[in-house]
Amino acid sequence: MRRRECTICHVVESIPRRLVFRIPGVALVGVFFAFASGSVVALAGPKWLLLLYLIPIGIGIWVLRTRTVVEAETIRVRRMLTTRRVDWSDLAGLRVRERKWVRAVLTDGDEVALPCVKPRHLPVLALLSGGRLPDPTEPPADSGNDEAPAPSAEIASETGANA
């Protein structure tokens, strides 16, 4: 007899304990080309032009270091020179700019930019937060009203606004 797997257990097991948002490693290809093209200028001129190598090296360090690490207990924000740890209990909410960036709003009013985290990542953040953040893709909870709004009413209001 074949054993049935529990689908809920499978879903719970597939939730990662840690998620890293970072700049894709393929960005280092651009850094390499900047380094190579800077070599033509740096080696052909005076010795002080060798300082041009610092630009692609700095960009490479920025690409390798900048990230947001989301875990069940904390969010760690790594920038080029600093690292900041934010506990979920210190988080009041998120401030989102459509399709651009996400910032963590702390209980004391400070905001921390979450590098490499985009609004499309919010459902994953909600999942890893363990219920501390609402999932924006879930429909709002029913307020006791049994009637759902008719789709034609929504379409009518949208077309009415454009007219």
Mean pLDDT: 79
Secondary structural class: alpha+beta
Number of helices: 5
Uncertain segments are: 6-11, 148-163
The helix/strand order is HEHHEEEEEEHH
Gross morphology: elongated
Strand sequence of the main sheet, in spatial order?
1-2-3-4
Q: Classify the oligomer.
A: single chain
Overall strand count: 7
Distance from first to last alpha carbon? 64 Å
Fraction of residues in helix: 25-40%
Strand residues, percent:
15-25%
Task: Round the Cα radius of gyration to an integer and report it.
Answer: 23 Å
Taking the sheet with the most strands, its summary is: 4 strands, antiparallel
Key phrases:
disordered C terminus; 163 residues; alpha+beta; three-stranded antiparallel beta sheet
Chart the SSEs and their pairings.
Elements: H1 7-14, E1 18-22, H2 27-44, H3 54-65, E2 67-71, E3 74-78, E4 83-87, E5 91-97, E6 101-106, E7 111-113, H4 122-128, H5 151-162
Antiparallel strand pairs: 1-2, 2-3, 3-4, 5-6, 6-7
What does this structure look like?
This protein has 163 residues and is of the alpha+beta class. It contains 5 helices and 7 strands; from the N terminus they run αβααββββββαα. The strands form 2 sheets. The protein has a 4-stranded antiparallel beta sheet with strand order 1-2-3-4. The chain has a 3-stranded antiparallel beta sheet with strand order 5-6-7, with no helix packed on it. Strand 6 and strand 7 form a beta hairpin. Helix 2 runs antiparallel to helix 3. The longest helix has 18 residues, at 27-44. It is elongated and about 65 Å long. The termini are far apart. The model is unreliable at 6-11 and 148-163 (pLDDT under 50).
